[in-house]
Amino acid sequence: MRTKIKNAFSSKINAIGLPVLALCWVSFFWGTTWLASKEGVKHMPALQLAAIRQFIGGFLYISFFLFKKTTWPKGKQWKSIFILSLLNFVCSNGLSTWGVKYISSGLGAIIGAMVPLWIVFISFFRGERITRLAVLGILICFGGVCVIFYEHLLDFIQPDFQFGIALSIAATITWAFGTLYTKKKAASFNPYFSLGLQMFISSIFLFAFVGATGKSIPISDIPINSWLSIAYLVIIGSVLTFIAFIYALQRLPTELSSVYAYVNPIVAVLLGSFIFGEPLTTAIIFGGSVTLIGLYLINFAMRKKKI
Fold first, then answer.
1. Would you give the DSSP letter of residue 259?
2. Burial 91-127 (b: 16+ CB within 10 A, else e)
3. Quick one: which of 133, 123, 107 has its CA closest to 273?
4. Roughly what angle, to the nearest 10 degrees, separates helices 105-112 and 282-306?
5. How far is 14 from 83, CA to CA, in rounded Å?
6. Which helix (H) or strand (E) holds 85?
7. How does DSSP classify residue 92?
8. CA 200, CA 53: separation in Å to the nearest integer?
9. For burial by CB atoms within 10 Å, which of 20, 36, 72, 182 has the most?
10. pTM of the full structure
11. pLDDT tens across 65-100, in order?
12. SS3 218
């Protein structure tokens, strides 16, 4: 009897503990990938780095599923995979990687967390109602962003800073479209295999773009720092953390599994200050906190509306 109770208790702990542990992993390590991208793009073209990262990550996923003799996607599943590879990896991942070449990793992470804001705006223009709580969240977000950018007003004179901000915002908008498309076209196809195919397909598009525009350097000229960044982004960012993310998403309530979105920017800002000496000012701390509170309210309003 004791053995049965012990086994049942152990199973329950594993059922709760492992997904929470996976969520903690996602919350911390996806925050560190902003710093890895920042370090990598210091020494090579950003889109070339994104292409190499996604090629290797996609290749590893596909190789694993080929070894397991997993069934390939069929018919309309391919259409969804192609569209998501363009939205989530060519545009969102590619543009956000390019963006941190011109702005701090912490600022890029804060902008990257603003996906729920764009989801609300896109839904509104599609004719959906916005709740009062969501409007309050938007206003709080706007106030937080104003505080953050107050001390960057002079930076906006610099074309590179403007370009980095524009790229980062565009990256979050395309991720929002990708999120909405995923919800609308949710398929039963293996999400891990789909992820690998999206990465691999996106790398082909990115390689084609950097080749056509001449925005690349020879492989032999890529310095060791960039290769170490790519290795970290592939192993930690593209493989282990994505696996942990999907695992947590499938086993935890939505309100809990979305916690990572609020922790990532905090990790990026703190480590960016500690490792790269990026400014950790009162405006960034206060404005970032206010922005994240606004984003939480928007997320809460969206979940409440579904209920």
1. T
2. bbbbbbbbbbbbbbbbbbbbbbbbbbbbbbeebeeee
3. 107
4. 20
5. 36
6. none
7. I
8. 10
9. 36
10. 0.83
11. 999 898 898 888 899 899 999 999 999 999 999 999
12. coil
